[in-house]
Amino acid sequence: MTEYDTTQAEPDTGPVRVNSWNGWDPLRHVVVGRADGAVVQAPEPAVQRDFPDDGYPLGTYGPMPADMTAEANQQLDDFTAMLRGRGIRVDRPTPVDFNRQVSTPDWTQETMSGCMPPRDLLLTVGNEVLEATMSYRSRWHEYLCYRPLLQRLFDADERMRWEAAPKPRLTEASYRPGFWDTYNTLTTEEQLARVRDYDLVLTEEEPLFDAADVARFGKDLFVQLSFVTNRSGYKWLKRHFPDHRVHAVTSTNTHPLHIDATWVPLRPGLVLHCGERLADAELMEFFKLNDWEIVEAVQPASWEHPPKLSYCSPWLAGNMLNLDANTLCVEEKEVRLAEQLAGYGFEVVPVPFRAVGPFGGGLHCATVDIEREGTVEDYFPRRYGRF
After folding, report:
1. CA dist., res. 353 & res. 361, Å (int)
2. Minimal CA–CA distance to 23: which of 252, 386, 272?
3. Where are the domains of the chain?
Protein backbone atom coordinates (compact mmCIF):
# COMPACT_ATOMS: atom_id res chain seq x y z
CA MET A 1 0.00 0.00 0.00
CA THR A 2 1.24 3.50 -0.80
CA GLU A 3 0.06 6.86 0.40
CA TYR A 4 -1.95 7.17 -2.82
CA ASP A 5 -4.02 3.99 -2.40
CA THR A 6 -7.70 4.46 -1.62
CA THR A 7 -9.55 2.47 1.00
CA GLN A 8 -12.01 0.78 -1.35
CA ALA A 9 -11.22 -2.90 -1.85
CA GLU A 10 -10.26 -3.89 -5.38
CA PRO A 11 -12.97 -6.14 -6.88
CA ASP A 12 -12.04 -9.73 -7.64
CA THR A 13 -12.11 -9.51 -11.43
CA GLY A 14 -9.70 -12.32 -12.26
CA PRO A 15 -6.36 -12.09 -14.06
CA VAL A 16 -5.16 -8.80 -15.51
CA ARG A 17 -5.73 -8.62 -19.27
CA VAL A 18 -4.99 -5.71 -21.59
CA ASN A 19 -7.68 -5.63 -24.28
CA SER A 20 -9.70 -2.68 -25.61
CA TRP A 21 -10.71 -1.91 -29.19
CA ASN A 22 -13.35 0.78 -28.76
CA GLY A 23 -15.02 2.96 -26.14
CA TRP A 24 -18.29 1.09 -25.62
CA ASP A 25 -17.64 -2.63 -25.00
CA PRO A 26 -18.20 -3.70 -21.36
CA LEU A 27 -15.55 -2.06 -19.17
CA ARG A 28 -13.56 -4.37 -16.88
CA HIS A 29 -10.38 -2.43 -16.01
CA VAL A 30 -9.62 1.30 -16.13
CA VAL A 31 -7.13 3.94 -14.98
CA VAL A 32 -8.50 6.98 -13.12
CA GLY A 33 -6.28 10.07 -12.77
CA ARG A 34 -5.38 12.18 -9.72
CA ALA A 35 -5.38 15.92 -9.09
CA ASP A 36 -2.49 15.84 -6.58
CA GLY A 37 0.09 18.56 -7.09
CA ALA A 38 -1.35 19.92 -10.35
CA VAL A 39 -0.17 23.37 -11.41
CA VAL A 40 -1.08 26.17 -13.75
CA GLN A 41 1.70 25.65 -16.28
CA ALA A 42 4.53 28.09 -16.76
CA PRO A 43 4.64 29.78 -20.19
CA GLU A 44 5.97 27.74 -23.11
CA PRO A 45 5.69 27.94 -26.93
CA ALA A 46 2.72 25.56 -27.33
CA VAL A 47 0.41 26.73 -24.56
CA GLN A 48 -0.88 29.92 -22.96
CA ARG A 49 -2.72 30.11 -19.66
CA ASP A 50 -4.46 33.39 -18.89
CA PHE A 51 -6.84 33.49 -15.90
CA PRO A 52 -6.71 37.11 -14.69
CA ASP A 53 -10.02 36.88 -12.81
CA ASP A 54 -8.78 33.86 -10.86
CA GLY A 55 -5.38 35.19 -9.85
CA TYR A 56 -3.32 33.77 -12.71
CA PRO A 57 -2.98 36.41 -15.44
CA LEU A 58 -0.92 35.60 -18.53
CA GLY A 59 2.66 34.75 -17.59
CA THR A 60 1.95 33.65 -14.02
CA TYR A 61 1.97 30.05 -12.87
CA GLY A 62 2.06 27.82 -9.82
CA PRO A 63 0.08 25.25 -7.80
CA MET A 64 -3.65 24.96 -8.23
CA PRO A 65 -5.51 26.19 -5.10
CA ALA A 66 -5.54 23.60 -2.32
CA ASP A 67 -9.33 23.67 -1.90
CA MET A 68 -9.88 23.04 -5.62
CA THR A 69 -7.38 20.18 -5.57
CA ALA A 70 -9.05 18.58 -2.54
CA GLU A 71 -12.52 18.81 -4.09
CA ALA A 72 -11.31 17.36 -7.40
CA ASN A 73 -9.55 14.50 -5.64
CA GLN A 74 -12.67 13.73 -3.63
CA GLN A 75 -14.73 13.47 -6.80
CA LEU A 76 -12.08 11.30 -8.45
CA ASP A 77 -11.97 9.02 -5.39
CA ASP A 78 -15.77 8.79 -5.27
CA PHE A 79 -15.83 7.96 -8.99
CA THR A 80 -13.22 5.26 -8.37
CA ALA A 81 -15.35 3.79 -5.56
CA MET A 82 -18.43 3.75 -7.79
CA LEU A 83 -16.56 1.90 -10.55
CA ARG A 84 -15.15 -0.62 -8.10
CA GLY A 85 -18.62 -1.10 -6.68
CA ARG A 86 -19.70 -2.18 -10.17
CA GLY A 87 -16.95 -4.80 -10.28
CA ILE A 88 -14.50 -2.77 -12.41
CA ARG A 89 -10.81 -2.92 -11.58
CA VAL A 90 -9.29 0.57 -11.14
CA ASP A 91 -5.65 1.63 -11.19
CA ARG A 92 -4.30 5.09 -10.35
CA PRO A 93 -1.14 6.96 -11.41
CA THR A 94 1.63 7.95 -9.00
CA PRO A 95 1.96 11.77 -8.86
CA VAL A 96 5.38 13.44 -8.79
CA ASP A 97 6.39 16.99 -7.86
CA PHE A 98 4.88 18.94 -10.75
CA ASN A 99 5.78 22.38 -9.35
CA ARG A 100 9.46 22.11 -10.17
CA GLN A 101 11.81 23.01 -12.98
CA VAL A 102 12.46 20.27 -15.54
CA SER A 103 14.76 20.15 -18.53
CA THR A 104 16.31 18.21 -21.37
CA PRO A 105 19.53 19.13 -23.21
CA ASP A 106 17.34 21.23 -25.55
CA TRP A 107 15.23 23.29 -23.13
CA THR A 108 14.32 24.18 -19.55
CA GLN A 109 10.71 24.47 -18.38
CA GLU A 110 9.77 26.06 -15.04
CA THR A 111 6.91 23.64 -14.18
CA MET A 112 5.26 20.42 -15.23
CA SER A 113 1.46 20.05 -15.26
CA GLY A 114 -0.23 17.13 -13.44
CA CYS A 115 -1.56 13.60 -13.91
CA MET A 116 -5.31 14.04 -13.87
CA PRO A 117 -6.04 13.31 -17.54
CA PRO A 118 -4.41 9.91 -18.29
CA ARG A 119 -6.36 9.74 -21.56
CA ASP A 120 -4.04 12.43 -22.96
CA LEU A 121 -0.96 10.27 -22.54
CA LEU A 122 -2.02 6.63 -22.92
CA LEU A 123 -3.75 4.92 -25.85
CA THR A 124 -4.98 1.32 -25.60
CA VAL A 125 -5.48 -0.49 -28.90
CA GLY A 126 -6.14 -4.19 -28.49
CA ASN A 127 -3.48 -5.61 -26.18
CA GLU A 128 -1.17 -2.62 -26.65
CA VAL A 129 -0.80 0.42 -24.41
CA LEU A 130 1.01 3.23 -26.24
CA GLU A 131 2.60 6.27 -24.59
CA ALA A 132 1.96 9.35 -26.74
CA THR A 133 4.68 11.86 -27.58
CA MET A 134 2.94 14.84 -25.91
CA SER A 135 3.48 18.31 -27.36
CA TYR A 136 3.90 20.49 -24.26
CA ARG A 137 7.25 20.72 -22.57
CA SER A 138 5.39 20.84 -19.26
CA ARG A 139 4.04 17.35 -20.02
CA TRP A 140 7.19 15.75 -21.47
CA HIS A 141 7.98 13.98 -18.17
CA GLU A 142 4.38 13.02 -17.35
CA TYR A 143 4.96 9.41 -18.42
CA LEU A 144 6.86 8.93 -15.15
CA CYS A 145 3.54 8.94 -13.27
CA TYR A 146 2.39 5.89 -15.21
CA ARG A 147 5.54 3.80 -15.43
CA PRO A 148 4.90 1.90 -12.13
CA LEU A 149 1.40 1.05 -13.33
CA LEU A 150 2.55 0.03 -16.82
CA GLN A 151 5.27 -2.14 -15.34
CA ARG A 152 2.66 -3.96 -13.24
CA LEU A 153 0.49 -4.53 -16.30
CA PHE A 154 3.47 -5.80 -18.26
CA ASP A 155 4.38 -8.21 -15.47
CA ALA A 156 0.80 -9.45 -15.07
CA ASP A 157 -0.19 -9.98 -18.72
CA GLU A 158 2.30 -11.79 -20.93
CA ARG A 159 0.31 -10.74 -24.03
CA MET A 160 0.55 -7.02 -23.28
CA ARG A 161 2.49 -4.85 -25.72
CA TRP A 162 4.00 -1.81 -24.02
CA GLU A 163 5.04 0.80 -26.56
CA ALA A 164 6.23 4.40 -26.41
CA ALA A 165 6.22 6.77 -29.36
CA PRO A 166 9.54 8.54 -30.03
CA LYS A 167 10.15 11.14 -27.34
CA PRO A 168 10.18 14.49 -29.15
CA ARG A 169 12.94 17.06 -28.75
CA LEU A 170 10.42 19.97 -28.62
CA THR A 171 12.99 22.54 -29.71
CA GLU A 172 11.89 25.94 -31.00
CA ALA A 173 11.75 24.33 -34.47
CA SER A 174 8.67 22.34 -33.40
CA TYR A 175 6.58 25.51 -32.93
CA ARG A 176 5.57 28.43 -35.14
CA PRO A 177 7.19 31.55 -33.70
CA GLY A 178 4.75 34.16 -32.43
CA PHE A 179 1.76 31.93 -33.22
CA TRP A 180 -0.42 33.00 -30.31
CA ASP A 181 0.22 36.72 -30.76
CA THR A 182 -1.11 36.43 -34.31
CA TYR A 183 -3.82 33.81 -33.83
CA ASN A 184 -5.52 35.64 -30.97
CA THR A 185 -6.03 38.71 -33.16
CA LEU A 186 -7.84 36.81 -35.95
CA THR A 187 -11.58 36.72 -36.46
CA THR A 188 -13.46 33.49 -35.88
CA GLU A 189 -13.68 32.81 -39.61
CA GLU A 190 -9.96 33.45 -40.04
CA GLN A 191 -9.19 31.08 -37.18
CA LEU A 192 -11.44 28.40 -38.68
CA ALA A 193 -9.64 28.77 -42.01
CA ARG A 194 -6.33 28.18 -40.21
CA VAL A 195 -7.80 25.07 -38.58
CA ARG A 196 -9.10 23.71 -41.91
CA ASP A 197 -5.67 24.22 -43.48
CA TYR A 198 -3.99 22.86 -40.36
CA ASP A 199 -1.89 25.99 -40.06
CA LEU A 200 -1.58 25.93 -36.27
CA VAL A 201 1.03 26.16 -33.54
CA LEU A 202 2.92 22.94 -34.32
CA THR A 203 5.29 22.55 -37.25
CA GLU A 204 6.10 19.22 -38.93
CA GLU A 205 9.60 19.11 -37.47
CA GLU A 206 8.85 15.81 -35.68
CA PRO A 207 5.89 13.52 -34.92
CA LEU A 208 3.69 14.99 -32.18
CA PHE A 209 0.37 13.73 -30.85
CA ASP A 210 -1.74 13.40 -27.72
CA ALA A 211 -3.51 10.08 -27.24
CA ALA A 212 -6.80 11.91 -26.62
CA ASP A 213 -6.81 13.04 -30.26
CA VAL A 214 -7.41 9.42 -31.32
CA ALA A 215 -10.96 8.04 -31.46
CA ARG A 216 -11.14 4.23 -31.55
CA PHE A 217 -13.80 2.50 -33.64
CA GLY A 218 -12.48 -1.05 -33.85
CA LYS A 219 -10.68 -1.44 -37.18
CA ASP A 220 -10.72 2.35 -37.73
CA LEU A 221 -8.81 5.00 -35.80
CA PHE A 222 -9.64 8.68 -36.33
CA VAL A 223 -6.80 11.11 -35.55
CA GLN A 224 -7.69 14.78 -35.10
CA LEU A 225 -5.15 17.36 -36.22
CA SER A 226 -5.12 19.95 -33.45
CA PHE A 227 -3.04 22.27 -31.27
CA VAL A 228 -1.26 19.15 -29.92
CA THR A 229 -1.32 16.71 -32.87
CA ASN A 230 0.40 17.38 -36.19
CA ARG A 231 0.37 15.64 -39.57
CA SER A 232 3.65 13.94 -38.76
CA GLY A 233 2.10 12.48 -35.61
CA TYR A 234 -0.80 11.17 -37.69
CA LYS A 235 1.62 9.60 -40.17
CA TRP A 236 3.54 7.95 -37.34
CA LEU A 237 0.33 6.45 -35.95
CA LYS A 238 -0.69 5.25 -39.42
CA ARG A 239 2.59 3.37 -39.80
CA HIS A 240 2.53 2.11 -36.22
CA PHE A 241 -0.91 0.51 -36.67
CA PRO A 242 -0.62 -1.09 -40.14
CA ASP A 243 -3.54 -3.45 -39.48
CA HIS A 244 -5.90 -0.52 -38.86
CA ARG A 245 -7.35 2.12 -41.12
CA VAL A 246 -6.01 5.36 -39.64
CA HIS A 247 -7.76 8.55 -40.79
CA ALA A 248 -6.76 12.20 -40.31
CA VAL A 249 -9.64 14.56 -39.53
CA THR A 250 -9.76 18.30 -38.99
CA SER A 251 -11.99 20.14 -36.55
CA THR A 252 -14.49 22.95 -37.03
CA ASN A 253 -13.53 24.38 -33.64
CA THR A 254 -11.32 27.46 -33.44
CA HIS A 255 -9.30 25.84 -30.63
CA PRO A 256 -9.12 22.11 -31.47
CA LEU A 257 -7.74 20.14 -28.56
CA HIS A 258 -8.63 16.43 -28.31
CA ILE A 259 -11.39 14.69 -30.20
CA ASP A 260 -13.18 13.08 -27.27
CA ALA A 261 -15.54 15.96 -26.51
CA THR A 262 -16.52 16.70 -30.11
CA TRP A 263 -16.86 13.34 -31.92
CA VAL A 264 -17.98 10.82 -29.31
CA PRO A 265 -18.80 7.18 -30.14
CA LEU A 266 -21.73 5.98 -28.04
CA ARG A 267 -22.25 2.45 -29.41
CA PRO A 268 -22.10 0.79 -32.84
CA GLY A 269 -24.12 2.90 -35.24
CA LEU A 270 -24.45 5.98 -33.01
CA VAL A 271 -22.06 8.90 -32.52
CA LEU A 272 -22.53 12.16 -30.60
CA HIS A 273 -21.28 15.42 -32.06
CA CYS A 274 -20.59 18.78 -30.44
CA GLY A 275 -23.64 20.91 -31.16
CA GLU A 276 -21.72 24.15 -31.71
CA ARG A 277 -20.59 23.43 -35.28
CA LEU A 278 -21.04 20.66 -37.80
CA ALA A 279 -18.23 18.20 -38.31
CA ASP A 280 -16.25 17.94 -41.53
CA ALA A 281 -18.81 17.21 -44.29
CA GLU A 282 -16.84 14.30 -45.73
CA LEU A 283 -16.49 12.68 -42.30
CA MET A 284 -20.23 12.98 -41.70
CA GLU A 285 -21.01 11.50 -45.12
CA PHE A 286 -18.64 8.59 -44.43
CA PHE A 287 -20.45 7.75 -41.20
CA LYS A 288 -23.90 8.10 -42.75
CA LEU A 289 -22.88 5.88 -45.69
CA ASN A 290 -22.04 3.19 -43.13
CA ASP A 291 -25.45 3.54 -41.45
CA TRP A 292 -24.28 5.51 -38.42
CA GLU A 293 -26.65 8.02 -36.87
CA ILE A 294 -25.04 11.33 -35.90
CA VAL A 295 -26.62 12.99 -32.86
CA GLU A 296 -26.09 16.70 -32.26
CA ALA A 297 -25.58 17.24 -28.54
CA VAL A 298 -27.77 19.71 -26.66
CA GLN A 299 -26.16 22.85 -25.25
CA PRO A 300 -24.25 21.94 -22.08
CA ALA A 301 -25.14 23.22 -18.62
CA SER A 302 -21.48 24.10 -18.04
CA TRP A 303 -21.95 26.90 -20.58
CA GLU A 304 -23.89 28.87 -17.98
CA HIS A 305 -21.43 28.62 -15.07
CA PRO A 306 -17.87 28.00 -16.25
CA PRO A 307 -15.57 26.79 -13.44
CA LYS A 308 -12.53 28.74 -12.27
CA LEU A 309 -9.11 28.13 -13.83
CA SER A 310 -10.53 25.87 -16.53
CA TYR A 311 -9.11 25.86 -20.04
CA CYS A 312 -11.72 23.30 -21.19
CA SER A 313 -14.55 24.07 -23.60
CA PRO A 314 -18.15 24.03 -22.32
CA TRP A 315 -18.57 21.06 -24.65
CA LEU A 316 -16.63 19.05 -22.10
CA ALA A 317 -20.14 17.91 -21.22
CA GLY A 318 -19.82 15.38 -24.04
CA ASN A 319 -16.70 13.92 -22.45
CA MET A 320 -18.45 10.83 -21.11
CA LEU A 321 -17.41 7.30 -20.14
CA ASN A 322 -19.24 4.21 -21.41
CA LEU A 323 -19.52 1.37 -18.93
CA ASP A 324 -20.99 -0.68 -21.78
CA ALA A 325 -22.99 -0.08 -24.96
CA ASN A 326 -26.10 0.79 -22.94
CA THR A 327 -24.66 2.61 -19.90
CA LEU A 328 -23.05 6.06 -19.84
CA CYS A 329 -21.44 8.04 -17.02
CA VAL A 330 -22.38 11.71 -17.44
CA GLU A 331 -21.51 14.70 -15.25
CA GLU A 332 -24.41 15.12 -12.83
CA LYS A 333 -25.24 18.73 -13.76
CA GLU A 334 -25.64 17.88 -17.44
CA VAL A 335 -29.32 17.04 -17.00
CA ARG A 336 -30.38 18.08 -20.51
CA LEU A 337 -27.71 15.88 -22.06
CA ALA A 338 -28.70 12.97 -19.80
CA GLU A 339 -32.31 13.33 -20.90
CA GLN A 340 -31.26 13.43 -24.54
CA LEU A 341 -29.22 10.23 -24.15
CA ALA A 342 -31.97 8.49 -22.18
CA GLY A 343 -34.15 9.07 -25.22
CA TYR A 344 -31.80 6.78 -27.15
CA GLY A 345 -32.23 4.02 -24.58
CA PHE A 346 -29.15 4.64 -22.45
CA GLU A 347 -29.00 4.14 -18.71
CA VAL A 348 -27.31 7.32 -17.52
CA VAL A 349 -25.18 7.24 -14.37
CA PRO A 350 -24.89 10.82 -13.01
CA VAL A 351 -21.40 11.47 -11.63
CA PRO A 352 -20.36 14.59 -9.65
CA PHE A 353 -17.30 15.66 -11.64
CA ARG A 354 -17.46 19.39 -12.21
CA ALA A 355 -14.57 20.10 -9.84
CA VAL A 356 -12.28 17.88 -11.92
CA GLY A 357 -12.63 19.91 -15.13
CA PRO A 358 -9.97 22.55 -14.35
CA PHE A 359 -7.44 19.74 -13.84
CA GLY A 360 -7.66 18.62 -17.44
CA GLY A 361 -11.05 17.32 -18.51
CA GLY A 362 -14.14 15.25 -17.93
CA LEU A 363 -14.99 11.61 -17.31
CA HIS A 364 -13.39 10.36 -20.51
CA CYS A 365 -10.25 12.48 -20.13
CA ALA A 366 -9.87 11.30 -16.53
CA THR A 367 -9.79 7.63 -17.52
CA VAL A 368 -7.98 5.17 -19.77
CA ASP A 369 -9.43 1.79 -20.70
CA ILE A 370 -7.21 -1.18 -19.91
CA GLU A 371 -9.73 -3.95 -20.51
CA ARG A 372 -13.07 -4.07 -22.25
CA GLU A 373 -14.75 -7.28 -23.32
CA GLY A 374 -14.86 -7.76 -27.08
CA THR A 375 -12.71 -8.14 -30.17
CA VAL A 376 -11.72 -5.94 -33.09
CA GLU A 377 -14.57 -5.39 -35.55
CA ASP A 378 -15.08 -3.52 -38.80
CA TYR A 379 -17.84 -0.93 -38.35
CA PHE A 380 -17.21 0.82 -41.70
CA PRO A 381 -17.32 -1.66 -44.59
CA ARG A 382 -18.11 1.07 -47.13
CA ARG A 383 -15.40 3.49 -48.20
CA TYR A 384 -16.02 7.13 -49.09
CA GLY A 385 -13.79 9.96 -50.31
CA ARG A 386 -10.51 10.13 -48.46
CA PHE A 387 -11.70 7.64 -45.82
Report:
1. 9
2. 272
3. 27-372
Look up 255 and say whether it is catalytic. no
Catalytic residue among 115, 274, 329, 365, which? Answer: 365
The residue from 247, 258, 273, 364 that is catalytic is: 258
What is the H or E stretch that residue 290 is in?
none
Which residue type sits at 203?
T
Contact between residue 219 and residue 245 where contact means Cβ atoms under 8 Å apart: yes
- Which residues in the chain land under pLDDT 50? 1-8
CATH number of the 27-372 domain: 3.75.10.10
- Element at 367 (helix H, strand E): strand 367-372
Q: What is the pLDDT of residue 301?
A: 85
Of the candidates 210, 213, 220, 260, the residue annotated as catalytic is 210
DSSP codes, 331-345: ETT-HHHHHHHHTTT
pLDDT tens digits for range 161-175: 999 999 999 999 999
Query: What DSSP assignment string belongs to 241-282?
Result: -TTSEEEEE--SSSS---STTTEEEEETTEEEE-SSSPPPHH
Nearest to 120 by CA among 224, 26, 14, 198: 224
- Interval 23-59: pLDDT, tens: 999 999 999 999 999 999 999 999 889 888 888 898 9
User: Residue 258 catalytic?
Assistant: yes
> Which is it for strands 327-331 and 347-351: parallel, antiparallel or unpaired?
parallel
Q: How many other CB atoms sit within 10 Å of the CB of residue 290?
A: 18
Reported pTM: 0.94
pLDDT at res. 133: 98
In whole angstroms, what is the distance from residue 177 CA to residue 238 CA?
Answer: 28
At position 5, the amino acid (one-letter code) is D
Q: What is the identity of the amino acid at 221?
A: L
Distance between CA 247 and CA 290 in Å, rounded?
15
Chain centroid to Cα 341, Å, comes to 21
Count of CA atoms in the C-beta half-sphere (13 A) of 74: 9
Strand 367-372 versus strand 27-32 pairing type? antiparallel
Cβ neighbour number for residue 64 with a 10 Å cutoff: 23
Whether 365 sits among the annotated catalytic residues: the reply is: yes
